[in-house]
Amino acid sequence: LSETIPDELRLLIEERKEKPFQMTYENSEHLYLAVGYGRQKSTEYVVAVREVFRNEKKVVVDTILVNGSNTKGMEAGKPGVCPFVVLRCDKMEEIVLFCAAEE
Fold first, then answer.
1. For residues 27 and 88, is the Cβ–Cβ distance under 8 A?
2. What percentage of the chain reaches a pLDDT higher than 90?
3. CA 30, CA 17: separation in Å to the nearest integer?
4. Do 58 and 95 meet the contact criterion of CB atoms below 8 Å apart?
């Protein structure tokens, strides 16, 4: 994990990564949006962020799990990995909605 992810969030992801998850984490500076797809039996999967948008009432995070061998310009994962993505943004009051799909 990147050094920009707080240690507490890193531990929460480590605890949950074996199964699909969607979560928010907030510290004094930022809001983190995390989506994981659990352990994959097949090889070369990546999480693609299709869209993130914010309006006056909500933030929507739309991700999809795709086979990395079918993507160009993306680094594919290794067999048996637990793909996830973490987005860091400014703190906000809106509700966060996650849309997670698989290819």
1. no
2. 63
3. 22
4. yes
